């Protein structure tokens, strides 16, 4: 036998049948779904989750987030650390403060089903890179930085049409106690991302204006809504808190539901209030928040209309948060909320569609 | 549904591709969605490998999908000094294929029965190729009789374009082990052919 056995085996290599396109798409969807279902370090809105899942091909970072200040009054160089006074928690009970509830005087928006809710905001959230150890035992360090964006989002008022998200990255900032990694300057999610509509999302997860308008207008009813269904999270209370944030963030909640929601949030165990919480634009409002992983996270409300002004995160437990107490690690401001008749012309075309996992079920979106 | 490639999703903005797989895997640590880029690059190649080794297309499709899911979960342990992730993916796929022993055996039996190449191309075919065709049933039987680790290595070397070094990476063994294992495997095959042809 003078033929090399390896060559003989190579010579009988069978042809591979073509990779079925549908099977290939399904495999990729499973991978994308797996990448999108990780546990968030900080609350992650439904919108963000969806945008992240979609953005696979584009590299929209769906890393976790916490917001920090972006207002001109707070502007600092990338290399400096943002530190604020520790929050003074109100002695009033949450229920007491929240009981002042909103009877909004301002002109309320009332988008028609065929219109879009447009929200412009500025955000600062923490981006967390994980500790990596390779097979040789070499480690590359855990990283943190605060990434900042200007965002505008358009979402269908009745949730039946795709929306769009425009992101402009701003200079990153130091996450106090952590050097800024090079990767902070290489974010690639600038630009326009289509936000597809998923087929038949569970009703309780819908946050479009038309759906919100049908929600209860009393605190008890709204509280029950926040505790409905499997919303993930470590506890039902955490999930209810996250659900409230998801309803408010980059969105418009009708006045009656807004008041109910505001009161309902105050009944979530662990939630309390602080007066004069400042958002990323320097506006002061009522902070309603809870502590998670050593960071106090607040939703900041306009004291008269109870609209969401923004969010902020401040380190209160240095050891747990691995950052000095008082560090501002999240700050956002919703700068404008308006109604648009149509999507901007920059909105990307629909594509093949993707699948995401909602409520434990894979649903396709387009 | 309108069919545009996924890459059109972001409209005007297309991210630059990282220069190598390791960079992409590193990015996926902070941004898991980036990992889908690895699928785009290598899914077809891994599928071909699985489809050659397994009897039914569905199993090959499952192995391919599972390979990337396993890789995604293990990505933190990827050796970022290795720019080419294919050996790693082939290694995972090989492990998964080993879990489908019956499908593998059916594949090799089918290979043994496979008709020789059509005569039209006969003139161009090398003498070795003709020999291989003649030996096909016995070769397939010899492959069936190998130990799983031997078959994995032999088919990685013979049916993919991995070098010995990369095959060693795929199987997580030193390249010296690859050489000695291949040498033993060749001897086994030679003896099998001598006694069966």
Q: Which characteristics define this entry?
A:
heterodimer; A: 366 residues; alpha+beta; 9-stranded antiparallel β-sheet; two-stranded antiparallel ribbon; 13 strands; globular; B: 197 residues; mainly alpha; 9 helices; 67% helix; CU044_5270 family protein (chain A); transmembrane (chain A)
Report what the structure shows.
The complex is a heterodimer of chains A (366) and B (197). Chain A has 366 residues and is of the alpha+beta class. In chain A, a hairpin with a 6-residue loop joins strand 9 and strand 10. Chain B has one domain. In chain B, helix 2 packs across helix 4. With 197 residues, chain B is mostly helical. At the A-B interface, helix 1, helix 2, helix 3, strand 1 and strand 2 of A face helix 1, helix 2, helix 3, helix 6 and helix 7 of B. Chain A: It comes from Streptosporangium carneum. Chain A: Keywords: Membrane, Transmembrane, Transmembrane helix. Chain A: This is CU044_5270 family protein. Chain B: Keywords: DNA-directed RNA polymerase, Sigma factor, Transcription, Transcription regulation.
Short description:
The complex is a heterodimer of chains A (366) and B (197). Chain A has helices spanning 5-11, 21-36, 46-54, 94-98, 209-213, 219-226, 236-248, 255-266, 318-321; strands spanning 116-129, 132-133, 139-140, 143-156, 163-173, 191-195, 272-278, 284-292, 295-301, 308-315, 328-340, 354-358, 361-365. With 366 residues, chain A is α+β, with helices and mostly antiparallel strands.
List the helices and strands and how they pair.
The complex is a heterodimer of chains A (366) and B (197).
Chain A: H1 5-11, H2 21-36, H3 46-54, H4 94-98, E1 116-129, E2 132-133, E3 139-140, E4 143-156, E5 163-173, E6 191-195, H5 209-213, H6 219-226, H7 236-248, H8 255-266, E7 272-278, E8 284-292, E9 295-301, E10 308-315, H9 318-321, E11 328-340, E12 354-358, E13 361-365
Antiparallel strand pairs in A: 1-4, 1-11, 2-3, 4-5, 5-6, 7-8, 8-9, 9-10, 10-11, 12-13
Helix pairs in contact in A: 2-3, 6-8
Chain B: H1 21-30, H2 36-53, H3 57-73, H4 86-98, H5 101-113, H6 127-145, H7 148-159, H8 164-171, H9 175-196
